[in-house]
Amino acid sequence: MDIHEGAPALSVAGLRKTYGENRAVDGIDLVVGRGEVVALLGPNGAGKSTTIDMLVGLARPDAGEIMLFGVSPREAVRRGMVGVMPQEGALLDDVTVGETVTLIASLHRTSIPVEEALRRAGVAGLADRRAARLSGGQRQRVRFAMALVPGPDLLVLDEPTAAMDVEARHEFWQSMHAFAETGRTVLFSTHYLEEAEAYADRVVLMRAGRVAADGPVSAVGALGLEDAFLRLTGASETVR
Amino acid sequence: MTGYLVFEIRRILRDAKFLLFAVALPVGLYLLMADRFIDQGAPAAYVMGGVAAFGAVKTALDVGARTAVERGIGWQRQLRLTPLSGGGYLLAKASVAMVVALPPVAGVSLVAALVSGVHLSAGGWALAVLGVWAGAVPFALLGLLIGQFATAQNLQAYQGAVVLVLSFVGGLFIPVSTFPQALATVAKVLPSYWLAQVGHATAPGQAALVLALYTLVLGAAVAARYRLGTARA
């Protein structure tokens, strides 16, 4: 990080990934500055998850360059600069929440106290519970604690609220907001328009593997995001 | 890596059912076979060597192969979001397999000594227990390889077939000298045949060489397959 003082939290150029005939990601350029909270919005199949997998080193791009704070995704992960909540990713049923988060903390060179990560994710009371006995929403929040525990500068969350009910969702976004308040960067994907509108400063709209629109929420929000969403997915124009 | 190894050892030590079965199965088999074969003139030490090898093979394979379940639920994916390397993960898993492979070997030897009165020199015991245990390394790796291919659903079938072939055709239960020529030739290709040679103290030097070769080949295969699997994801 020291040698990449001015590098943006995320910079992507010419990103492509094809699965067989399917061009999942078809040329994406994106720069996310430090401290931004960005929503990656789009319908299912737009390429959000594939993009995120590549951003954090879980999938290898066919073409393009990705830098997180000026280093490769794998290096950023190794240095604990990025905390990730992948869409698929699981907990071991026979292990307790506390043990799981402690393990993740111990694998990183530096970390925040496990209790603090659990508390921030809203699962402090579940430390002694085995994963087999967690609800879907609780599992998601434990995975959020796993993303928080290295003390990352960037959080990448792939449809974080997918398995949550309304109340859990509300609590989750409060935790996320508290993290962003400290000046750190968040990139999350969602197909809920209201989540993007309520919690992001900027919306990147994806459609068919490309960026269909990219702009601050205020600009898009003035028209009403839902309206803009429909219009933009049809017209592929940039509002910025 | 050590942090992950400790975590995995704690997990397996908590799995009392698995550990108990890992020891009880070969010990039970030994008692059953000793009862039948020793009357027919087979030395108890011979039966002990084969069954101890079976215990090591089955347990080492089981632990490695169970990684298929973790792969299936996405745990390996989760770990790739930490500084733990693929090599570190595999090494930790192989080490756990080796930790758990010792009790069945020691258990069979202990029962053979106590119940059948098997007497060996200090060197003989070292070979029978530590030699057979060390020889389980390629089986731990083979288990990891199965774990990379199998799914949680078809795991039992794969693993069952492999253990069956390795133990019967490898001559862990029935001496290869009684096999038809063709089958005996096949047997000599299997790593389990050579582990039995260690257990029977017949050709430990040559066996060590063959098992080391298997370790290299299987280790390379596991690493290559793991890299391929993560690249494709």
Automatic annotation (TrEMBL), chain A:
GO terms for biological process: response to antibiotic. It is a peripheral membrane protein. SUPFAM superfamilies: P-loop containing nucleoside triphosphate hydrolases. GO terms for cellular component: plasma membrane. Pfam families: ABC_tran. The keyword Nucleotide-binding applies. It is found in: Cell membrane. GO terms for molecular function: ATP binding; ATP hydrolysis activity. Keywords: Antibiotic resistance, ATP-binding, Nucleotide-binding, Transport. Residues 10-233 form the ABC transporter domain. The keyword Nucleotide-binding applies. PANTHER family: ABC TRANSPORTER ATP-BINDING PROTEIN. This is ABC transporter ATP-binding protein.
UniProtKB/TrEMBL annotation, chain B:
Its main location: membrane. It is a multi-pass membrane protein. One of its GO terms (molecular function) is ABC-type transporter activity. It is found in: Membrane. GO terms for cellular component: membrane. The chain crosses the membrane at residues 18-38, 44-69, 90-116, 122-146, 158-183, 203-224. It comes from the Bacteria. PANTHER family: ABC-TYPE MULTIDRUG TRANSPORT SYSTEM, PERMEASE COMPONENT (PTHR43229:SF3), NODULATION PROTEIN J (PTHR43229). This is ABC transporter permease. It comes from Microbispora oryzae.
